[in-house]
């Protein structure tokens, strides 16, 4: 692309920075240049807090995906030969540029996705941390040396890049999850094609600008805007895409796995959750209330790790209920750009309808509604997509309200009489992402961390708050055994190569010439 066009795009971005209300035209980033898609359909990006249009995106086609994959495949041959510490230098540069632009990125994120600005800053910081962490892996990427069973023979294993990887990311964490996938992919020597969610393409555009400005070689990082049915399917089915890393709904994840399996691709899935906080009779109730509020209502309940169930011991249920209700009254709701707001909007009208439908399901199932339960339409809230923080009690453990993912600010209190029952109820759902226990009894804590069937367990904390240097992912219907984040993320984006070096000067046969 000519420098004039790059300058134009930067000028538009600066104008958005200044006014915050200029609709942008977003183009694909393919092979190191900005390219318009070949699609005929457009989609508007709107601020879920205000309904204001922020950007226009032309939806890409399978032909656009093919262009991106070709660029990535061509670049990968040379990129894999760049020493890993040199590849890591680009991540250091990306992290530093993200750090410089942290406030700008957080504001774009909040306008586009809706989460409150404090959470937006935290998410951008997570991306910065991931950049620096994975840059450090450029000087590790450890293999293994082991003794050979034969004399004068050397045996070792090394991590090898796989090739072109396809990244499909959700709207609720448009920066963090993208960095969990893209940064380990490129430090390991792969190139990628990234399809961000259609609801949050502006953050992908901002990241593409950063890739461009740090001078990452053309074709290493590619961003294609479009729908899952068109762009996502084209990526999954493309013969030159070797790996698919997907975060999204369980139903879509099953389709990704089935399609990827037919094409013999490595597929990494991170999907839904129905996470629970267990509050035992010896718990610090005030601390538990804080943990529940943050886990359940942060990001308006739109986290895959959000707490949607509270499994509480019968002896402290009433105390917990009253303290939760009292604290919920102080939760301010509104535009996340307001520093005083604690809960922003949900992503769109469709999400509102789904949340409202589950409130009605809960009532029909006999659960008692203690607070909330309605769409908020008064004053400025009428312009956006706001739902009241909602609390049900006397919820049956096997009801739809307690079993199905809602993805909104709705919490169900479930009474139990023992730790055994609490663990059984926790594990009764099809998901297995995150769980938490509040207790001062070390015996209960260690029993719970062993027996809770989730990929993440918190003790005396809510169900959210994962750190980037540990594996992130779940069991059962939440995933397929792979992990994002931490060193484990490298297992998704590398293959093991075993190497044998015989310097005996003669033929030696393993398992035969060992006597």
From TrEMBL:
Q: What is this enzyme's class at the first EC digit?
A: oxidoreductase
Write down the Pfam families for this protein, in alphabetical order: Aldedh (PF00171)
Catalysis performed (reactions): (2S)-3-sulfolactaldehyde + NAD(+) + H2O = (2S)-3-sulfolactate + NADH + 2 H(+)
Is NAD set as a keyword in this record?
yes
Q: Does the keyword Metal-binding apply?
A: no
**InterPro entries, from UniProt?**
Ald_DH/histidinol_DH, Ald_DH_C, Ald_DH_CS_CYS, Ald_DH_CS_GLU, Ald_DH_N, Aldehyde_DH_dom, ALDH7A1-like
| Aldehyde dehydrogenase domain sequence ranges | 34-499
Q: Which Gene3D superfamilies match?
A: Aldehyde Dehydrogenase, Chain A, domain 1, Aldehyde Dehydrogenase, Chain A, domain 2
Query: Record's PROSITE patterns?
Result: ALDEHYDE_DEHYDR_CYS, ALDEHYDE_DEHYDR_GLU
Q: Name one GO molecular function term.
A: aldehyde dehydrogenase (NAD+) activity
Which residues does the entry assign to the active site, renumbered to this chain?
270
Signal peptide (residue range): none
Q: Which UniProt keywords apply?
A: NAD, Oxidoreductase
Q: What's the Enzyme Commission number for this chain? A: 1.2.1.3, 1.2.1.97
The record's note on quaternary structure and interaction partners says: Homotetramer.
What exactly does this protein do? Part of the sulfo-TAL (or sulfo-SFT) pathway, a D-sulfoquinovose degradation pathway that produces sulfolactate (SL). Catalyzes the oxidation of 3-sulfolactaldehyde (SLA) to sulfolactate (SL).
Q: Can you tell me which family this protein belongs to? A: Belongs to the aldehyde dehydrogenase family.
Stated name of the protein = 3-sulfolactaldehyde dehydrogenase
In the record, what lineage is assigned to the organism producing the protein? Answer: Bacteria, Bacillati, Bacillota, Bacilli, Bacillales
């Amino acid at each position: 692309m000519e420098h004039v066009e790059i300058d134009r795009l930067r000028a538009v971005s600066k104008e958005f920075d200044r006014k915050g209300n200029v609709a942008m035209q977003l183009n694909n980033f393919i092979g190191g240049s900005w390219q318009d898609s070949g699609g005929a359909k457009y989609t508007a990006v709107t601020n879920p807090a205000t309904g204001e249009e922020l950007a226009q995106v032309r939806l890409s086609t399978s032909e656009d995906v093919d262009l991106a994959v070709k660029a990535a495949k061509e670049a990968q041959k040379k990129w894999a030969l760049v020493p890993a510490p040199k590849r890591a230098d680009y991540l250091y540069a990306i992290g530093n540029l993200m750090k410089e632009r942290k406030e700008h990125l957080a504001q774009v994120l909040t306008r586009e996705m809706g989460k409150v600005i404090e959470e937006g800053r935290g998410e951008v910081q997570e991306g910065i941390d991931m950049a620096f962490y994975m840059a450090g892996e450029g000087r590790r990427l450890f293999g293994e040396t082991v003794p050979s069973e034969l004399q004068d023979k050397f045996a070792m294993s090394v991590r090898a890049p796989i090739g072109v990887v396809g990244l499909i990311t959700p709207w609720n964490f448009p920066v963090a999850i993208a960095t969990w996938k893209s940064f380990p992919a490129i430090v390991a020597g792969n190139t990628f094609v990234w399809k961000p969610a259609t609801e949050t393409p502006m953050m992908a555009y901002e990241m593409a600008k950063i890739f461009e400005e740090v001078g990452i070689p053309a074709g290493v990082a590619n961003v294609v805007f479009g729908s899952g049915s068109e762009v996502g399917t084209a990526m999954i089915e493309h013969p030159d895409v070797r790996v698919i890393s997907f975060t999204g709904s369980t139903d879509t994840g099953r389709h990704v796995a089935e399609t990827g399996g037919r094409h013999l691709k490595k597929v990494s899935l991170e999907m839904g959750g129905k996470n629970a906080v267990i509050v035992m009779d010896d718990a610090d109730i005030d601390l538990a209330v804080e943990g529940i509020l943050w886990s359940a209502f942060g990001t308006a309940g739109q986290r895959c790790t959000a707490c949607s169930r509270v499994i509480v011991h019968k002896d402290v249920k009433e105390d917990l209920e009253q303290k939760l209700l009292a604290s919920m009254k102080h939760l301010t709701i509104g535009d996340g750009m307001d520093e005083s707001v604690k809960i922003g909007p949900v992503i769109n009208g469709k999400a509102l309808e789904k949340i409202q439908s589950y409130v009605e399901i809960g009532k029909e199932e006999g659960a008692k509604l203690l607070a909330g339960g309605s769409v908020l339409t008064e004053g400025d809230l009428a312009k956006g997509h706001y739902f009241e923080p909602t609390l049900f009690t006397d919820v049956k453990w096997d009801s739809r309200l307690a079993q199905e993912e809602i993805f909104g600010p709705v919490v169900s209190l479930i009474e139990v009489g023992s730790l055994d029952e609490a663990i059984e109820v926790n594990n009764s759902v099809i998901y297995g992402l995150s769980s938490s226990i509040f207790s001062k009894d070390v015996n209960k804590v260690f029993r719970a961390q062993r027996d809770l069937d989730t990929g993440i367990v918190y003790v005396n904390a809510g169900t959210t708050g994962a750190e980037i240097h540990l594996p992130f992912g779940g069991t059962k219907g939440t995933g397929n055994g792979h992990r994002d984040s931490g060193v484990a993320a490298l297992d998704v984006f590398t293959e093991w190569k075993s190497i044998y070096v015989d310097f005996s000067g003669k033929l030696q046969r393993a398992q035969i010439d060992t006597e």
